[in-house]
Design goal:
Chain lengths: ~230, ~250
């Protein structure tokens, strides 16, 4: 990389990478939501899909590492940008009125991001670590419980019996929504994708996505909690 | 009107500043904000106190010299105006007004409310020009420019470089300023020739000056006295992306 362009060094490049990783995570979130939705309508469909996702080598050993890398990258870059941005104003204003010209969501992406980070830690503890343990440490790739049935739907239901856990999940979905309300459309702006015809559509689509997907996740969690 | 002013006083770039309270009386609602400060300074001079240093020049909203972060907003509570165009009728008798300088790593305080904005000059020097041969000017109709592009270039060129975008941005980012300077030239045929080098060099200088990154909050667009659009930032992002990938340097 030449000295002048410094693709990974300039402020703009960091924003491109932030936008691309963000859009990638948005696509992942859609896929995650669709599979979760299956759990409401058909335990069998959810079990079969989960088993496929959990045992397919392409998904497990190629797509999953890319996804984890994407998540880690988005977090690390987010905190790095925040650090630089804070350094850009070493002396704060004594009196500031930022709500006069910007939304809460746009100013507190780092806060909503941090909440999502802690949620992900819990989410990994709940599902990912036990899954890795069962499959790769205990070596049980069958996806079956002791009764010989698929275990995925049963494990899901088990997690959502605790009202505190359901509440934490719902709280995290609220912050996810706030993060997406700004992040979705902001990613397009960062990449320079702005056009008088399409930008209003992107903004509306972003708002719809930011409300519908986290709300959907929350409804699924509540549904399983009450379906016991 | 009688007002309580809390004004940032700072001896120079190397000393710590602080807010100092002043009471100013007999303020007419028809005064501009800077005229109100003139009255305060006359009172201070009468009392043998050091007057408050603040930037100003044309006092008609075109030079970009006046600044001031007033009650938490760049150029005060109105939008689309500079501080010299802000009138005291925007305030009420008995109000407390906080007056601070632009605060940003790229804009060090020189004294009181005066900051050094020469970082903007260096960014312009890095690429905000068009190289043309001198000699007889050619016929204006030789180079067609669409009305739409001419209008966009002109609106970008209305940037007066006051620095309100940096002052108001939570990251002290200079993206709106730099993108306006990039756009006003790259939209026109004469400026397209050096477009790649321009955007690369100006962004490089912007980063070197210690301004922050853009979070797309849109605060700059709202506080800009000339209404420079975020469309310019998107254009710069696009141009930089293409230039980074395709530049031979």
């Amino acid at each position: 990389m030449s000295e002048q362009t410094g693709l990974l060094k300039s402020s703009l490049s960091k924003k491109y990478l932030m936008a691309i990783s963000g859009l990638f995570l948005i696509i992942f979130l859609t896929q995650h939501f669709i599979i979760n939705l299956l759990s409401v309508f058909s335990a069998d469909a959810f079990n079969n899909t989960s088993h496929f996702m959990g045992t397919n080598p392409l998904i497990q050993f190629v797509i999953q590492p890319i996804l984890i890398l994407g998540v880690v990258f988005h977090f690390v870059m987010g905190f790095l940008l925040e650090k630089q941005n804070r350094a850009a104003r070493p002396q704060k204003y004594a009196f500031s009125n930022p709500s006069a010209n910007s939304t809460w969501m746009s100013r507190y992406m780092i806060l909503s991001g941090a909440v999502i980070f802690w949620f992900l830690a819990l989410h990994f503890y709940d599902f990912w670590f036990p899954e890795i343990n069962t499959k790769f440490i205990q070596g049980d790739m069958s996806g079956l419980n002791i009764d010989g049935n698929f275990r995925y739907h049963e494990e899901l239901l088990h997690k959502f019996t605790n009202p505190i856990r359901v509440s934490i999940y719902i709280l995290a979905f609220i912050f996810l929504s706030l993060h997406l309300l700004h992040g979705f459309q902001s990613a397009f702006q960062s990449l320079g994708a702005r056009h008088p015809k399409y930008t209003p559509c992107i903004k509306n689509l972003g708002t719809l996505y930011a409300v519908a997907i986290p709300l959907g996740f929350a409804i699924i969690a509540i549904y399983h909690f009450f379906s016991h | 009107m009688k007002l309580l002013l809390k004004i940032w006083r700072q001896k120079n770039a190397n000393t710590q500043g602080k807010l100092v309270e002043y009471v100013v009386d007999h303020v007419s609602p028809d005064m501009s904000f800077l005229e109100m400060l003139d009255v305060l300074n006359e009172n201070l001079v009468d009392k043998n106190e050091e007057p408050i240093a603040f930037d100003h020049d044309c006092r008609e909203g075109i030079c970009g010299m006046c600044s001031l972060y007033i009650n938490g907003r760049a150029h005060g509570p109105q939008t689309g105006v500079t501080t010299c165009q802000l009138h005291m009728r925007s305030f009420k008798d008995g109000d407390t007004i906080y007056i601070e300088p632009w605060k940003a790593n790229g804009f060090p305080v020189i004294k009181d409310l005066v900051v050094d904005r020469s970082a903007f000059d260096r960014i312009i020097q890095a690429g905000g020009y068009v190289s043309v041969n001198t000699g007889a000017a050619q016929d204006a109709n030789c180079i067609p420019v669409s009305k739409q592009d001419a209008d966009k270039a002109f609106s970008a060129a209305t940037c007066i470089g006051c620095g309100a975008c940096v002052a108001t941005c939570k990251n002290a980012s200079a993206m709106l300023f730099v993108s306006a300077k990039v756009s006003q030239l790259s939209l026109l045929p004469q400026g397209k020739i050096e477009a790649k080098d321009r955007v690369l060099n100006m962004v490089k200088q912007m980063d070197a000056e210690g301004f922050g990154n853009c979070t797309n909050t849109g605060a700059c667009e709202i506080e800009c006295p000339k209404g420079i659009s975020l469309e310019n930032i998107a254009r710069m992002n696009r141009e930089y992306l293409v230039a980074t990938i395709t530049s031979e340097k």
